[in-house]
Structures are given as structure tokens and as C-alpha cells.
């Protein structure tokens, strides 16, 4: 498997250092064009967006990327912080480490090449945490960040999480329509795999803020919906009510009262308990069927 870095951070520096009149065109050419496989795929699944206006800039705003209109000096200062923290080198190393742990070639995973792209985020676009990742496009791992004191050290775990998705989503177990149980396990596997490589302290608040006292009462609701396949309903369970509303979507059907990122936290505990009961690692379990993991976790047994 070949790993290819797509240097969008260096490209954005070129854009911001250019004449203002050229910046939008250069942004399309240097930043967004190399990312076309990611955002074209994204727009295809969003009604009314694929042919709306300038597709590259539309996608950039939806992805919460830093655009030239957000300011030259502010952007260059943030890029400088990322360069001094060696985020490109650190995350390229994290991806190589994750690939070495998962060994997808030995498991028949269809990943001949994986692209790693780190992007500068809209400083107001990703909440207090200031970072996110995406691994739902085959062969692509994306990490987006607005640098803050607390988040740079956590980016390698995000890279590992998203690469785990790349591998997991290529398994026969991941088919459309996606049942809630499969989605729950995929997020739990990605987080336990990241913790396996970089320690549980590297995980985001979406996984760690809910404890057993909050998750225990949610167990029957998730158990009853494990085979639910309506994607909006499934996402409601994974992301929770307030996150769905913030993203401009109505409640996904999980019902009122689901806390933010409930599915991430619950999936993490389901997978952790499966690993504890079976003695398997997260890397090994990445190739286990989701029903086996759910049933073996002990979370949903009568």
C-alpha cells in the first residue's frame, strides 16, 4: 500500500502569500483541486449542492476550511504554528504506524494507495475542540485543524481513527444501507484503535465525556435500534440531538434526550468490552463482523 501526502497546508501558504486578486483562483487550483475526490463525493450526496454556484468554494465552506477571505495574516500565523509543531511529519508517521498495525494488504483490504491531507480549518467552524477528521472516502484520510494549545498533540490519534475507517469501510461487513449496529461498532473500533496506538488521553471529548451513569440508561434504546437502516435516524443515534441541530438537520429519529455524540461514546465502550472479553486487540477486531462484536461485548444481552 502506497502512502501519498497531499500538502494542502503548503498550498494554502502559497495562496495567502499571493496577490489578493489571485487568491480565490489559486485556492481552487492549489488547495481544492487536489482534494476533488473527497469533496466531489461529498457534494454528490447532498441534495441541491452538486451543481450550485462554485462547487469548489461551496465544498470548502461545507468542510469548514480556511478560505482566503478569512484573512492573510491570521491564516499565515496559524500555518506557522502548524509548521513549528511539525504536524505534517507527525501525522505522516501516525499513518505509517497505523498501516503497520492493521496490515490491510494481509487481510485483502482494497487499498492500493492512501492519501493523507491536513487542512487548516475555519477558526469558528469546529467548535471548542478545533479539529476533526474524515475517512469515509476510500483511499483518503483527512484531518482539519485550527491550532489550539490542547489539540495539536491529538491529531495523530485522529489520523489513526480515520485510517481505521478506510480499512473497516472496505470490509464485506460494511454494506449499504448501513445499520446502526455497524456504524456504532465502526466508531468504537476507530477510537479504540487510536487509543491503542496513542493512549486514551489522546481521544476527543466526543468519546470521553459520557460515563457509565449516562450511557447505561441509553442501552435499551440503542439495543432496540441496532438494525435500523434509515441513515438520518442512524446519524441521530450516533451524533445526538444538539449536534444534529447544529449541523442544520432535524433530529435524526433517535428521540429527544440523546446527548451529544452518544453513539461515539457507547460504541467505544462496546468495543472495549468486546476486546476485554476476547483478548483481541483493536487492530485484530477491525476485521471482525459487527454482529460478533456487539454480541460478544455483553452490552446487549438479556
UniProtKB/TrEMBL annotation:
A Pfam entry, by short name: DUF2268
Residue span, DUF2268 domain: 113-293
Name of the protein this chain belongs to: DUF2268 domain-containing protein
Species of origin: Deinococcus aetherius
